[in-house]
Amino acid sequence: MSLAIVHSRAQVGVLAPPVLIEAHLANGLPTLTLVGLPEATVKESKDRVRSAIVNSRLEFPQRRITLNLAPADLPKDGGRFDLAIALGLLAANGQFTQAALDKVECLGELALSGAVRPVQGVLPAALAARDAGRALVVPKANAEEACMASGLEVYAADNLLELVGHFSGQQPLMPYQPNGLLLNPRPYPDLSEVQGQLAAKRALLVAAAGAHNLLFTGPPGTGKTLLASRLPGLLPPLDEREALEVAAIQSVASPKPLDCWPQRPFRHPHHSASGPALVGGGSRPTPGEITLAHHGVLFLDELPEFERRVLEVLREPLESGEIVVARARDRVRFPARFQLVAAMNPCPCGYLGDPTGRCRCSSELVQRYRNKLSGPLLDRIDLHLTVAREATALSPDSEDGPDSATVARQVAITRERQQQRQGCANAFLDLPGLRRHCRLSTEDERWLEHACERLTLSLRAAHRLLKVARTLADLEEVEDIRREHLAEALQYRPAGQE
């Protein structure tokens, strides 16, 4: 047969759209033409494929070759199509039948020797192949990752010759059996290691229980970073859907997507990070920090040191849970349902309000420092807490609060209550859900309206305050939001945000 078709997958963000590699052999002078909007790395594949076939002691067709990567309007890049192109050429040249390729999809880069090298973004392709009802052929180094898509038949190969033997029926490969993915998850740092700071630990509990955003303000050395790093250990474990989403993002962004799987991510970008570093970008859009923190925690230390225009890009994903990166040719949508935890000093020197009186910052300097953060951004942070400096040496009978395991159990019970009631964490309640699940008595509603007017809180801030109060009620396992829940939630809101 002079025409062969092989199924493969491209990579567009965290999606894996289908690509058909069509190989046609015709009479004429030996040439090879590659069409279908290939990028430079794909154009180079014809030389890698030729050398791989020859060095595998297989026959390279000496005919007029046309390779089409369909659909033609989808950009293709990377070496992930090498294996599919080689198999298409061999099938068109009669090395094995087209029927052997109909129920499989192929991914892999070829070395000049014929070895099959790993590629990134295998898990999204594996999930898509499973949904399409096909098996997946991948390099052996990607086999464990592909097996994360349960119910998918995976074939792993070290070289091109093995696959020719498999598809020709001379030496069939057995489906790959995974070795197990949940080997040694890294332990989270424990909350009990943080001395004192009971109020901050309470705020961490509330933030974890309702998926609320949190801002710590305090002088250097008070434990803001330590506290933030403990939050992932308080959150419920990822369910299967969330774990696969996190792994798919890591598959696209990292050559080692199984590291720390299936733990919640904790991203800690430096304050010199640019806007594209946070939201993603590039001529070929790649995930940024907010997408890498999907279903996890994004920690921004020294918040005012970030450029203001960089911080402003967080406003939309904090509300919508996704980010759209638009380029001349592409519009790529990345998930970004993360929990923001930030830390900052109260003034440029960091010691405003310290009992030692070390701060020498003028009021104008302090105001200029705080004005680096816009009101709309601060409005989207549910919990604001001032972290005071603790005594240098704690007495032996001091109370440091519970450990992470104890708090995590309480958080898990509270989150389960929210899932059963509304299907999401309290922080993600929409307006109809807010009206349905955060009802107040007439007296408490008037009290809250008066409090919001006195503190000049925006309507968004008032809604977030209600969500925090709902979480406080859930922690006490009561159905109705009470006045004490509203009062505590108000303590976490600074006045004057508009």
TrEMBL record:
Alphabetized SMART domains for the sequence: AAA
UniProt-listed Pfam families: ChlI, Mg_chelatase, Mg_chelatase_C
Entry keyword annotation includes ATP-binding: yes
Record's keyword annotation contains NAD: no
Domain of life where this protein originates: Bacteria
An example molecular function term from Gene Ontology annotations: DNA binding
Keywords: ATP-binding, Nucleotide-binding
Family: Belongs to the Mg-chelatase subunits D/I family. ComM subfamily.
NCBIfam families, sorted: PRK09862.1, YifB family Mg chelatase-like AAA ATPase
PANTHER family: COMPETENCE PROTEIN COMM, MAGNESIUM-CHELATASE SUBUNIT CHLI
Name of the protein in question: YifB family Mg chelatase-like AAA ATPase
Organism: Pseudomonas bharatica CSV86
